[in-house]
Input
Amino acid sequence: MSPTIYTIILSTLATGTIITMTSYHWLMAWVGLELNTLAIIPIISTMHHPRSTEAATKYFLTQAAASALILFSSMTNAWNTGSWDITQPLTSPSHILLTMALAMKLGLAPLHFWLPEVIQGSTMTTAFIITTWQKIAPMSLIFLTMNNLSTSVFLLMGLLSSLVGGWGGLNQTQTRKIMAYSSIAHLGWMATISSIMMNILIMNLLIYLIMTTSVFLSLIISKSKTIQDTTSTWALSPTLTIIMLLSLLSLGGLPPLTGFIPKWLIMEELILQNFNLLISMMATSSLLSLYFYLRLTYTTALTLSPNTTQTKFKWRFYPNTSTMFITTPATISIFLLPMTPLILL
Output
């Protein structure tokens, strides 16, 4: 793809997200979501392969269906109330349709089936965009309409997403699919707290974006598409291997790393709200996610691929990918836990 066209597409992607985040009219929010969808489809299909074409088709169908549901729910609400304002209270059928549409946009269970397949059919960079930037616009709509959405439905979807994200990633060998199920599990935690404490939701989303950025940049630089590929990262770059190792453990929510902050605060808030059974099940499901993070960590740090030479480092060319951009997200995703009291203030 031409650099000029790629720049235009990325600008359209950013514009769509900003329009959705800043709009208070349902039609403008819908236009922003459509710009987002239409901009990401050429990026998904840049790799001339049947898998990428299939991924682009699946992404288009699911996102178009979700956008149609959002438009239909807003039209139904405008018909009943006479207002297109996003903050306007929604009628009974409208808020159910909107909940389902936003869940499909994000990839929450049980409307998650498209996400692993689309990410597996995309390049690593495209998968990074789908699991990070593409979550911001639907999350902003949840933030604006949370008082009108069903709390019980979001709690149920959060629990299902946490379970599906844990179970689904256990038998995966492709790093992109592992990151897809990781995204589903983290979205489950965000959906659970979204109806209770909005400040924790925003902090959870920011920490998730930073941790996922750190892990994806590590995978992109080391060109690790499968678990087997991670066994050679130590020979390529020991420093990058350590960053990947700690970022994966942080993504799993292991203390004393940054990823423990959102789980700690969400568990504390749900216990205060007397959701004891719910948080017990979600904490148990997070152990499933931690298992496949530990499996990736084991192959990355504690195993070595077969070598034909006696040296432990490989001969390698100067890397084409700049490692400058990984330093900030890696530092934040590893060392932020001691600053939790300052964040809460």
Remarks:
- The chain has 16 helices and no strands.
- Residues 150-304+322-345 form one domain.
